[in-house]
């Protein structure tokens, strides 16, 4: 498995890298940490220079910052190397979200990891432009890390779509060594006319999938609005990771972008979130 971690000088992004290293220790994986330097030419075009600062001044400052971040990457990578997982820094120039997306596609990565704000519920609403752009346009699953916590309890928001099935199949080998408790929650969406029989069959389908993959999951049913019920369960359940499919009830046929519901849940919860998406052959 190839993992791409987006890093900058923030504490959250360095935490995300360490989290990825802990998550994948002794796993057959390769982790690359990408730092994207601002484009000096683009900064000049946008008038982003500080007063009285020359282009050379800005370039020196950016190089200094890049060297500092790369040094921090090497420090964080020691955690990976201790767990027998290769870890290397990458440096690109340009728009952070665009460069992360480009690297993920051209490098054949299986997962993108980003550090997210974690200090308050309010900050959970403010993921930022880079997170939003990557969430909207990535073709890979995305893990947003908030705080470092050992993953002992996972909540899967499950609607029974092929994307949700893919999410179960994706996390099963990832956590096979540590075997956390996995809860499958299906929300019976009454406004959509969903019957109790369908809801029961749906959650049992998810349970059977995880049984086949070596897990003994907890199953739960709720009734009401999908987003509200998931957030309620997260608030009271003390989960360490929330997993959901990117496409909602079904995958869009022509433009497979993340659903509003998945985007809202990624923004609103203060827990780490794994948003799963599967690229079609046309996208690969």
From TrEMBL:
Which CDD domains does the annotation name? USP-like
Q: Where is the UspA domain?
A: 2-146, 151-277
In terms of Pfam families, this protein maps to:
Usp (PF00582)
Task: State the family named in the UniProt similarity comment for this chain.
Answer: Belongs to the universal stress protein A family.
Q: What is this protein's name?
A: Universal stress protein
The species is Desulfobacca acetoxidans
Taxonomic lineage is: Bacteria, Pseudomonadati, Thermodesulfobacteriota, Desulfobaccia, Desulfobaccales
């Amino acid at each position: 498995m190839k993992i791409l971690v987006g890093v900058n000088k923030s504490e959250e992004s360095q935490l995300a890298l360490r989290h990825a290293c802990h998550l994948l220790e002794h796993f057959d994986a390769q982790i690359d940490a990408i730092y994207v330097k601002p484009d000096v030419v683009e900064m000049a075009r946008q008038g982003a220079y500080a007063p009285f600062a020359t282009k050379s001044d800005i370039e020196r400052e950016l190089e200094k910052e890049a060297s500092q971040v790369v040094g921090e990457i090497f420090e964080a990578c020691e955690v990976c190397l201790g767990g027998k997982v290769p870890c290397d820094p990458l440096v690109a120039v340009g728009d952070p979200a665009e460069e992360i997306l480009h690297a993920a596609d051209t490098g054949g990565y299986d997962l993108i990891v980003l550090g997210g704000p974690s200090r308050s519920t309010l900050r959970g609403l403010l993921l930022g432009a880079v997170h939003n752009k990557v969430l909207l346009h990535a073709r890979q699953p995305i893990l947003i890390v908030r705080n470092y916590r050992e993953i002992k309890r996972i909540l899967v928001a499950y609607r029974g779509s092929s994307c949700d099935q893919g999410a179960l199949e994706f996390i099963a080998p990832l956590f096979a060594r540590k075997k956390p408790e996995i809860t499958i929650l299906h929300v019976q969406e009454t406004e959509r006319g969903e019957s109790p029989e369908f809801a029961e069959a749906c959650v049992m389908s998810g349970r059977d999938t995880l049984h086949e993959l070596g897990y003994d999951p907890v199953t739960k049913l709720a009734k009401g609005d999908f987003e509200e019920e998931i957030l309620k369960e997260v608030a009271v359940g003390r989960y360490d990771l929330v997993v959901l499919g990117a496409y909602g009830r079904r995958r869009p046929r022509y433009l497979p972008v993340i659903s509003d519901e998945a985007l809202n849940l990624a923004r609103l919860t203060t827990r780490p979130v794994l948003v799963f998406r599967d690229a079609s052959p046309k996208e690969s």
